């Protein structure tokens, strides 16, 4: 079986020059099926969430140092915090992009599966395949719901970061930094909840990948 890296590179190369149908047909000729692409995309989404977890935690740590910094270093503090915010936005966008890829491939896979079930002449085999399809769709929906919840939980955190970055930018003085102390504890709790939600989503992704490999 081809590695995930080869699958990803092959799919990426084709995506620039072909529609989905041509891309899938070409990949299937070399032994790469929609289920392989789906598993690869789920892994990418899981890894993007792990990266986002690390970035949000790094940003929180930076935020904690900013509120303790001396007035003479406020400009430097703002620049560091702004960089952390921008990196957090990029990490959140990566998560959303990977989830969109998962949804696209899963939709194509299930549509193909449903159409092919109609081709069975053996009723027993058709029922068994329908049962496997429903089971896989159920597990996929649970995983996707968890991913979506983690994705949505990032936005309030980003909004809080953005507000405070802007406030620090507009008020580069000791009073502004002092006012940030009140939001730090709240932000710390938000990020802790975000990380927990992402952990649940990552766990469901791992379960889905393992089940797809054994089914």
Describe this structure in words.
It is a single chain. This protein has 215 residues and is mainly alpha-helical. The chain folds into 2 domains: 1-32, no CATH class; 34-214, Four Helix Bundle (Hemerythrin (Met), subunit A) (Up-down Bundle), CATH 1.20.120. The chain contains 6 helices and no strands.
* C-alpha termini separation: 16 Å
What spatial form do the alpha-carbon principal axes imply? elongated
Oligomeric composition of the shown chains = single chain
The CATH class of the largest domain is identified as Mainly Alpha
| Mean pLDDT reading | 80
List SSEs in N-to-C order.
HHHHHH
Quick rundown:
By secondary structure, this protein is mainly α. It has helices at residues 4-15, 20-29, 34-66, 74-117, 123-170, 174-214. Helix content is 87%, strand content 0%.
Key features of this structure:
single chain, 2 domains, Four Helix Bundle (Hemerythrin (Met), subunit A), 0% strand, elongated, mainly alpha, 87% helix, 6 helices, 215 residues
